[in-house]
Request: fold
Amino acid sequence: MAGRLIDDEPELAFQHALAASRRGGRMAVVREAVGLTAYAAEHFGEALREFRTYRRISGSNDYLPMMADCERGLGHPERALDLVRSEDAKDLDTAGQVDLAIVASGARMDMGQFEAAVSALEIPQLDRNRAFSFSPRLFRAYADALELAGRNEEAETWRKQALRADSALGMGDFAEPEIFDLAPEEERKERRSERREDRSGAYFAADEESAPKDNSVVEPAEDADALPSDEQEGLLTEDGDVDEDVEVVVSDFNMDDDEDEDTAREDADETEQSRIDD
Reply:
């Protein structure tokens, strides 16, 4: 529940996570949920405490950037910078390093050190020609720092670059909308049942089509009427070919019979003539 509410109703999500923590407070995943929802609801003191507890239980430093940002939220930019410079920061992956640089830049802004805020973001990942999942937020943070430093034209350039990165990655305004099925459970079951029936019908139809055809048998007319019009036309064409073949065979057979009868009469006449001559 907390995960579904965190973006739209962070305060309510935080309350749900707190309720869960009363039942499983010593589980790392529970402390993580409480920390994330508290951070989203801007309860920075609670979030910092929960992230510390999570780190102690799990041994993970993944939330070090959020911990540093909580220090900023509590009005302690110097403590935020201490976390940025800590040994634990070396354990972070590339995205974590980027987030930590953004927090460091924000801390410098809080202290009025705008050029230092710009410098904090000039890291190898700040590449305008390449876009990663973290690139849009890094580009925007850099644009904000440039603007505060009075470098407005450069700031505008990086804001445009952030939009291009969003477009390339399908993020932000270019993200695909999430679709949720809000139909009642009974309707969902009914639709699933219909889909199963459709698949079953298609399966049997495929079996019938793949079965070998015996062209010596002409399908009854009523079976043809039961087919769709386009299939009827195909069946009629096939039947026409069969009928034509049958007619040829029947015609040849009748001609053979006539020849046999004529031969028999000639033989009988010759025999009768021989007897008369004798």
